[in-house]
Amino acid sequence: MQLQLTTSALALIAPFFALTKCHPLGLPPHALNYSYSSTLSMNQILAIAPKSSTCEGAPYPQQCRTAEQALPHIVGSFQKYGVNSAAEQATLIAIMAFETGDFKYNVNVVPGTPGQGTRNMQSASYNMKYAMSIPSLSAELASVMTGPQGLDNPNGIRDLLTSDDDLDFGSAAWYLKTQCGPAVGQNLASGGLAAWQAYITGCVQTTPTEERQAYYERAMKALGAA
User: Fold this and answer.
1) What span, in angstroms and rounded, lies between the C-alpha atoms of 162 and 124?
2) How far is Cα of residue 91 from the mean position of the Cα atoms in its chain?
């Protein structure tokens, strides 16, 4: 599914930010939750993404983050977007680890799809929508959103996000809480393979392969949600 803009994207930025600034995170009402607490540890991240112990030998060292480096940004994203249940957290860590080869990448290298990236490897259209939800990016975003749909420079939009680790690791939580609908998160929170499969097929819009499931199962076990 691609984000479609029917008028000039640049003309839409100002009113969009005017709306999102009514809440400092630019979140819809169902995403607000301030009861967050976390005991997430580096060892739990390593249990899910064992190759994230080091960036030595990484094909693109500037893209790579270790579990230790990733941890505070992952925790921060859960706090920001209200990802409170262990099962939801496990789901998001699993998809980020799977999509990035244990945090080795934050850009689609093969086949090199323009604009695709961040730690959940979301498409260019969702990266634009994510960037538009972040008030602090408004000035920079206006300079890179070109063309009638704002996507003539998709890599420029993506790079605004991947250059900031908080934003880079925040995309998976943003996507779950703003693009999937509240029922998806509620079902994930209750745990269970069927809820995860529904998230992968219905919201991420891809296939729940055995390799994806292995990451999910490791994550659920590591976070005590299995």
Assistant:
1) 12
2) 11
Angstrom distance (rounded) from CA 95 to CA 217: 11
Q: Is 107 helix (H, G, I), strand (E, B) or coil?
A: strand
| Cα 102 from Cα 61, distance rounded (Å) | 13
- Our CA dihedral for 175, 16, 31, 149, rounded to 10 degrees, sits at -20
Gyration radius of the chain over CA positions: 17
Are 208 and 200 in contact, with CB atoms under 8 Å apart?
A: yes
Which pLDDT tens digits describe the chain residue by residue (226 residues)?
444 443 344 344 443 333 333 333 334 333 333 233 358 999 999 999 999 999 999 999 999 999 999 999 999 999 999 999 999 999 999 999 999 999 999 999 999 999 999 999 999 999 999 999 999 999 999 999 999 999 999 999 999 999 999 999 999 999 999 999 999 999 999 989 999 999 999 999 999 999 999 999 999 999 999 8
Length of the chain: 226
Neighbours of 217 (CB within 10 A): 16
Q: Are 9 and 145 in contact (CB under 8 A)?
A: yes
* Closest to 85 measured CA to CA, from 129, 40, 118: 40
Which whole-number Å values give the CA distances from 185 to 36, 83, 196, in the listed order? 15, 8, 10
Hey, what amino acid is at 45?
Answer: I
